User: What shape does this take?
Amino acid sequence: MPQIMPQIMSLSDRSLIGKSLGLAAGIMVLDQVSKFWLIAWVEAQGGWAQVTGFFNLVMVWNRGISFGMLQSGETGRWLLVGFTSLVCIGLYIWLTRQSHLWPALALGAVIGGAVGNIVDRIWRGAVADFFDFHIMGYHWPAFNVADSAITIGVAVLLYDSFRAPADQGPAD
Assistant: This one.
């Protein structure tokens, strides 16, 4: 018979969720502070600044999704805000079911990055991207702190998904 009442979370589960949400909040704050500073600084430099032979700071407004795909107007902006918010709720539910540290922190990183980009879409109308890596004339699409957190979080989740349960050991 299915259990109707949810299980009461243990103190360690709440602590794991707290650490993960703390990481999410820290990433979102770092993302927004970096954007506040970089938007003004990069625009004052004329929209871009060469940092090294393979790295520039650029000002790109992404109104679409990853790598600038699906650029859209106001309707698309709010659809992306709604969809990303639903994804964050789903990730939070997944987080509440985690009992291991690394996957929980990875989910926190993805949530923090996603919320950072949601804030941009609501406040600025588009996501501000700055980091431009390139080699031999080929540029990786510009990205930001939030995108980095999402990518790292997904990479950790993928790595964790390939580990055998015996490799995971007890809850971290």
Remarks:
- Residues 79 and 85 are 10 Å apart (CA to CA).
- Residues 12-163 form one domain.
- Residues 11-44 form the longest helix (34 residues).
